[in-house]
Amino acid sequence: MLSLSHDFADAVPALATPWAAAPAPQARLLVLNEELATSLGLDPSFLRSPAGVQTLVGAAVPEGAVPVAQAYAGHQFGGFSPRLGDGRALLLGELRAPDGALRDLHLKGSGATPYARAGDGLAAVGPMLREYVMSEAMHALGIPTTRSLAVVATGREVQREVALAGAVLVRTASSHLRVGSVEYARGTGDIAVLRDVVDYAIARHHPEVSGDDVPALGLFRAVVAAQADLVAKWMLVGFIHGVMNTDNMTLSGETIDYGPCAFLDAYDPATAFSSIDTAGRYAYGNQPYIAEWNLARLAEAMLPLFDDDLERAVAMAQEALARFRPLFAAARSAGMRRKLGFADADADADADAETVGVADDEVEALAGELHEMLERARADYTSSFRALSDAARGDATTLSRALGGDAALGVWLERWRAHAPDPVVMDAANPIYIPRNHLVEEALAAASAGDLEPLGWLTTVLSTPFTERSGAERYAEPAGADFVAGFRTFCGT
Ligand code: AMP
Ligand code: MG
Predict the structure, then answer these.
(1) What is the pLDDT of residues 135-147, one digit of tens each?
(2) Is 247 a catalytic residue?
(3) Is 257 annotated as a binding residue?
(4) CB of 375 closer than 8 Å to CB of 268
(5) Among the options 229, 247, 265, 427, which is catalytic?
(6) Any idea which positions bind ATP (predicted)?
(7) What's the pTM value of the predicted model, to 2 decimals?
(8) What share of the chain is helix, strand, coil (3-state, %, to 5)?
(9) Mean pLDDT rounded to a whole number for the chain
(10) Nearest C-alpha to atom 22 of ligand 1 is from which residue?
């Protein structure tokens, strides 16, 4: 059995609307993340049982649990929506994992709530399996993210352009607090509500700042740091979130809301896959700026807790926000260093003398030139970086082909090799397998037709993205140019 607390509902009642999931009489488990279940102290065989499946869709409420729809606001594509909230989701409650951490157990697709507005409160099998695949791939790549525990088909029909099979995704997170949660609290006009949500975020994520002179400022600084690190990690693997609205940005620094996200294939910073992002606001290359913009919205919402004097409060916010760019640059540069096969800048003196001491400027210069070549050739981002390992081992044929025989490569290789790049460092930083758009589409199409095997294979391959797996060659290969050119993603599906 499952035992859940209702910490959030107790601590921030103004943002918690008790609600029940829609019944799912034909519930059928499609995928269960046994590894995650076990790490949470949950028994996979219970979760597979009829009672377990009913719990996973929210139809059977664990004793003591108080499922709630969470209220939040959000800046969507730059415009403010004061009332969004969980329109088709529920926080079942929090779970104390064996490692001591408190985790949210959350449902998506569990029926319309008071925040549903015009929506039907439902989700289809395909998009929920997609979130499962993408979030678990991100976790395997070492990127902070919400995790997916299970996808359950509900037996309900969901009307989209055509009728689709409905599903519930069960996900976990270190919390579902968003920038938009704080914006909503601020919007109530009640400073006590703002204080509740900020205090709860501090208790949950950064108890170390609770003794600061201005704990809210300590929290803001910590969120700035967590987001700088997160977005740097996205950039380093070519992840495009696709809908970085403030309601889709966590305070924890975990990636959340896998709607229209996709990985970059042909390298071009202007890439935006989302069908509704026509202006490219959330394009790959814009992500750090958008994160900073979102953090400015967070600071605005928190101002009354920084200082009673507005001028001083704004100065504090600006100073804290100014840390974003250097923190992002440092995280990106540290990652780029590893992608190029150089040991960490602060590696100690007894490390291999050949691999320490590549200056930051040199890393930046090499990375900059390599990215120019990648962009000129519209080269596949992931496989090109992986081909660097071969180049470090002496064979640059694959890399040269990927870069379309760029004439600048020879000089670049000479300069790079002079620093003795370590292919072992590179192999641990440049994945072979990412959830390539054509593979995800293919697995989801099969799953929607009732065949879950391709999806199982895909998730298995993606679970060890840095390790070559025999028989998995096609999972490492880019899609054909036709697929790449026409690929679009969709949100809210
Ligand atoms: P998203 O684009 O997924 O971040 O969602 C933005 C807002 O729309 C959130 O408040 C969601 O809860 C809500 N929403 C998205 N899809 C639905 C749906 N099918 N029914 C009700 N609300 C939805
Ligand atoms: Mg969302």
Answers:
(1) 999 999 999 999 9
(2) yes
(3) yes
(4) yes
(5) 247
(6) 85, 87-88, 108, 120-121, 171, 178, 257
(7) 0.96
(8) 45, 15, 40
(9) 95
(10) 87
